[in-house]
Write a structure and sequence with these properties.
alpha/beta; ABC transporter transmembrane region fold; about 10% strand; Rossmann fold; six-stranded mixed beta sheet
């Protein structure tokens, strides 16, 4: 098994080829169909040369060449069918590989957790998972099969030509390598242009996503014009990079076409001179002349697909960069129940930050108690919760459940013990019933209804014509902030078997009535549970048994709340 370091030293192309193994049968079929198509090309050329020589040199009538014409028509149809089958199998191989990569990206995003994912720019992640994976389609569907055909098809034709005329075969052998040579020279320049274009696309995607997410803020503060200017600047960079890439593509097409035309002309000149001299039969010379463009065609098509392939390879760098993000250690131990949870000199650092988010933090959460973490924004309380949820791993110290290190505990098994109410619960497009069941997929309709009631969301649900089957809109757009918060509480209620409740700023940014309703719901949730609440102000921690006060990543005070 490859280590992470070994994986990173591999080129993107090598790693793509490793992913291509799952589609190897389809890739082999595509190449085999291409070779058969090359055989039909030879048959077409031989039959066409024979028909023309018979009619114009031998004086044959139409009736005498009916058999050859029928075979020629069959060869044309066979070539068309083989070309279609090759396109289908090539696309099938691309679909298999891109589906596996898309699944790998999704699995990675889910496994690295929200804290590490938050360190990646959302626009880059979206581009990698979406357009980045799609950009690999031409690489596997067209470029990779064409690369094999570019080596095999000229070889098949040259082998046939050797039988007819060794001089033409020598011309082919000398001129064919010039095409890939020029492709390599142009490809060096194309690499830089494609990298610049993909970087510009990621920048544009990031700017655009930022604007979409912050439309309300931009409008309120009157800064929409500034962001539009940044998008306009990013769009201009992308336009310039794209036009530069297209310029290289057109240049390479011109060079390859010109090289193929000159090479074909050399073959034609040598054939013409020997036809005049009478040292070469007309039928053989005409057949070779018909085949000459077909020798260079697969190589020219490699050049055509090369630029789409480079875009895919460049996209793969972003995808593999995302796949190489280190994951949290995988534990297999089970943590004991009903025991204290201890932070023992815990230090947490995020990449790119000058100071630790938590530094040498120690405190104890006794089972069945209510603990409030207070402090200003950025003081470290949310990082402490992230460590408790195993979204981040300490670089120093330990989080202990009883005497078991949380780093060695199965993360999924541990999180099943936790009912989590985030500050801004994620609401998915669907019904209220579906969203509540995120807390417990096996919950009955009665349990969902009871959870909605306990969370104080029942009055709102009763006003809806569809009740629990009412749609909440994309991102909960049809719900207010307080209603989304109560929906998060309902998820916690339906997860009644979880012995630990974590609530992150549950009463932030809501009116006083909603705040009191949420506090009452939290009191009901807190029965027979260990409760960890993150609050901004100490006054909101009055119901806690223990208050942990954070400032600048350190604990400045631990004790009972001031009443």
């Amino acid at each position: 098994m490859k280590t992470s370091r070994q994986t990173r030293t591999e080129s993107s192309t090598t790693r793509l080829l490793r992913y291509g193994r799952v589609a190897r049968p389809y890739l082999v079929s595509t190449v085999a169909l291409g070779v058969l198509s090359a055989a039909t090309i030879v048959v077409q050329a031989v039959l066409l040369a024979k028909v023309i020589a018979s009619v114009f040199i031998g004086g044959s009538d139409l009736r005498s060449i009916t058999g050859e014409l029928a075979l020629y028509a069959a060869a044309v149809l066979a070539r068309g069918l083989l070309t279609w089958l090759r396109a289908v199998t090539g696309q099938r191989s691309a679909t298999i590989v891109t589906s596996e990569l898309r699944e790998a990206v999704a699995r990675k995003l889910l496994s690295i957790g929200p804290s590490r994912l938050g360190q990646e720019r959302a626009g880059s992640v979206a581009i990698a998972a979406g357009q980045g994976v799609e950009a690999l389609d031409p690489f596997f569907a067209r470029y990779l099969p064409q690369l094999a055909l570019g080596a095999l098809v000229p070889l098949v034709i040259i082998v046939w030509v050797v039988r007819l005329d060794w001089v033409s075969a020598v011309v082919f052998i000398l001129t064919v390598p010039l095409v890939p040579l020029f492709m390599v020279l142009i490809g060096t320049l194309a690499d830089r242009r494609t990298s610049r274009r993909w970087k510009a696309l990621r920048t544009l995607g990031g700017h655009f996503l930022d604007v979409l997410e912050g439309v309300a803020t931009l409008k309120v503060f009157g800064r929409a014009g500034d962001r539009l200017a940044s998008i306009r600047e990013a769009s201009e960079l992308y336009r310039v990079a794209t036009m530069g890439t297209l310029r290289i593509a057109f240049l390479s097409a011109l060079v390859l076409e010109l090289l193929a035309a000159i090479s074909t002309a050399l073959v034609a000149v040598t054939i013409g001179l020997r036809l005049v001299a009478g040292t070469l039969a007309f039928e053989a010379g005409l057949g070779i002349l018909i085949l000459a463009p077909e020798v260079y065609l697969p190589l020219r098509r490699i050049g055509t697909e090369f630029h789409a392939a480079k875009a895919g390879i460049e996209a793969a760098k972003t995808i593999f960069g995302l796949l190489d993000v280190p994951e949290s250690p995988v534990g297999s131990n089970r943590a004991p129940s009903g025991v204290p949870i201890r932070f023992e000199n815990v230090t947490v650092e995020y990449p790119g930050r000058d100071a630790p988010s938590l530094e040498d933090v120690s405190f104890t959460i006794e089972p069945g108690t209510r603990v409030a973490m207070v402090g200003s924004s950025g003081s470290g309380k949310s990082t402490a919760v992230a460590a408790l949820l195993r979204f981040v791993e300490p670089v120093g110290g330990r989080v202990l459940v009883g005497e078991v290190d949380l780093a060695g505990v199965d993360a999924d098994e541990w999180r099943r013990r936790i009912a989590w109410v985030p500050q801004d619960p994620t609401v998915f497009a669907g019904t209220i019933r579906d969203n509540v069941r995120f807390g417990n997929p096996d919950a009955s309709d009665e349990e969902v209804g009871e959870a909605v009631r306990l969370a104080g969301l029942d009055r709102f649900v009763q006003r809806l014509g569809d009740g629990l089957d009412a749609q909440v809109g994309e991102g909960g757009s049809l719900l207010s902030a307080g209603q989304r918060r109560r929906l998060g509480l309902a998820r916690a209620f339906v997860r009644d078997s979880a012995p630990i409740l974590i609530a992150d700023e549950p009463t932030a940014n809501v009116d006083l009535d909603t705040q009191e309703d949420i506090r009452a719901a939290l009191d009901r949730l807190a029965e027979h549970r260990t409760v960890v609440t993150v609050v901004h102000r100490p006054v909101l921690a009055a119901d806690a048994d223990l208050v942990v006060h954070f400032e600048r990543g350190r604990i400045v005070e631990v004790g009972r709340p001031r009443r």
